[in-house]
Amino acid sequence: MKRLFVLLPLLFATLGASAQQVAKSSCIYKTVGADTLRLDRYETAPAADGARRPCLLFVFGGGFVNGSRDDARYVPFFEYYARQGYVVVSIDYRLGLKLARANGPLDAERFAEAFAATLSMATNDLFDATAHVLTQAEAWGIDPERIVTCGSSAGAITVLTGEYALCNAHPATRRLPAGFRYAGVVSFAGAIFDTQERMRWAARPAPMLLFHGDADRNVPYDALYAMGAGFFGSKHIAGELRRMGAPYMFYSAENTDHSMALTPMEENRYEIDAFLEKLVMQHLPLQIRTEATSLDRPAVNARFTLTDYLEANYAE
User: Fold this and answer.
1) CA of 171: how far to CAs of 123, 152, 168, 278, in Å?
2) Would you say the C-alpha torsion 126, 75, 80, 141 has a positive or negative sign?
3) Residue 42 bridge partners (DSSP)
């Protein structure tokens, strides 16, 4: 009976959170030529004491050729974190490889240049969206020191690249206020692309949560080298973070394909909650690696080449 009285307040608190209504609003944050870029904001009623709330800034996936900020598959994830007390912001960004592919096949020779230009566009849009959120932080009740980026697939590549740019004081980061840093990064099957064959970190990154399947043929799980450039997946990034002594969580799924770009939003909220609470909010100096194996999943070929990437994402 005593245990029941202990659990009842927790149960009622959970039911109360799930009953909260989530409101959605939209606005334009940027216009570039013919492109009008919008963001959607998901939130519940602010706290009675007016306390500033953390922000989860989301970037959608789609191989930089398609996708949308309000894809129905993402909305339950947005609403869940809005009910957890976050202001969730999901943004548009320009799809550079859609434009590049319209000018001809994306073979290996064209890929590195086109991909670098694509990432430049996407990260510029991410930074401009962040700058807009910062200008609205007081009106929207957001704590500017607790903005966490989050992305799926191409969106994960974008948020990881954005953090990498901040660590290396890339000129694009001048779009943000001096000294600004994200509070954390959540990546669903992402990677970092660099025009050199090794990663360079001038400063330690924000805490990172990396989800990836080791048989992903859309985004490299480990490092992929071609034509003097490197495409560094979650396994490689986790190794870099471990070497630097930077806090991170790495959830590695064996014999799992690119489904990790979506499934953690529904099936791994416990891990995401733990990351946000322990590494982002409490700033605990932890490095956590989880290796998940499905016993009924058949073994698959986990080898990955540049050709595989091009065929998986950009074949006609």
Assistant:
1) 11, 25, 9, 32
2) positive
3) 24, 88
Cα–Cα nearest to 56, from 123, 192, 124, 155: 155
Q: Which residues of 131-162 are buried (b: 16+ CB within 10 A; e: fewer)?
A: bbbbebbeebbbebebbbbbbbbbbbbbbbbb
Domain residue ranges in the chain:
23-314
> Tokens representing 299?
């073994």
For domain 23-314, which architecture applies? Answer: 3-Layer(aba) Sandwich (3.40)
pLDDT in tens, the chain (316 residues): 444 444 555 454 555 556 689 999 999 999 998 899 999 999 998 877 778 999 999 999 999 999 999 999 999 999 999 999 999 999 999 998 887 777 766 666 677 788 888 999 999 999 999 999 999 999 999 999 999 999 999 999 999 999 999 999 999 999 999 999 999 999 999 999 988 888 999 999 999 999 999 999 899 999 988 777 888 999 999 999 999 999 999 999 999 999 999 999 999 999 999 999 999 999 999 999 999 987 777 666 666 666 666 666 665 5
